[in-house]
Amino acid sequence: MRYDPKFKSSSTFKPMKKTAFFTFLFLAVICMFLCSCGNTKKLIYFQDIPEAKAAAPVALGNYSEPIIQPDDILAININTTDPAATVSINSRNGVYVNGGSNPQNGSANPLAGYLVDKNGNVEVPVIGTIKIAGLTTSQARAAIKDRANHSFIDPVVDVRFSNFKVTVIGEVNHPAAYIIPNEQVTLLDAIGYAGDLTIYGRRTNVLLIRKQADGKNVSVRLDMTKKEMLSSPYFYLKQNDIVYVEPLKTKVLNNDNNLVKYLSLAATLFTAALLAHRYW
């Protein structure tokens, strides 16, 4: 029996080509999978809180009532047994004007109310001018009620901020300035109003900018992957706080390398198609 080299090349080399082709295709699929997957650990908040079946205590930062300042807008309501007696006071509240989205119902923000002037006073119909700058809303409520007792019988007074605003910008789903109808607002509340951080938001370095009572601005960076953020003195927000979430470096790289990535993917698929056509 004669040795036929053509028979050997056709019977043994072709399976080797097929094996090389499938190996290349397998590696291409693995590379595509690795490129599309990210590290989900970067997206987890409070990673150092251990998993436990029973409830565990969590320390929160100390809350302090916000202080009324000049240019604040307040909703002041005085209620008595005769609603008509205070209609001129209460009619200034609840009027909606153009503004950002309300976090509760998406409507315009209720910025109408009583403006605190540059001297720290508000002028309320019937009861007159009252100095309330430097007070909390509970202290202002007591001061206004004391004055209202001269004009009304057993008045019930309510004072709230109409312009308690926090601004959330950067890598969040809905960046905006939010008017919040609640004085006790946390950083988590603000981020929740903004639709949470995107997958590209840097959770380890969230920047908070705050204007202090003396007019100076301070900034602090908070790590939302650590539970110590909950006990930070900046966990509770003040009016006019600004929260900025910076992007991860991976977003910048992804944006810069999108064309290269897609060209590489196209070249890989094209090469695989050529090999398939040649060896099948």
Number of helices: 5
Helix content: 25-40%
How do the strands of the widest beta sheet line up side by side? Answer: 7-6-10-8-9
Sequence of secondary-structure elements: HEHEEEHEEEHEEEH
First-residue to last-residue Cα separation = 30 Å
Specify the overall morphology.
elongated
Q: What is the architecture of the domain at 73-161 at the second tier of CATH? A: 2-Layer Sandwich
CATH overall fold name of the domain at 73-161? wza like fold
Q: Biggest sheet: strands, sense, closure?
A: 5 strands, mixed
Number of strands: 10
Average pLDDT, rounded to a whole number, is: 79
Under the CATH scheme, which class of the domain at 73-161? Alpha Beta
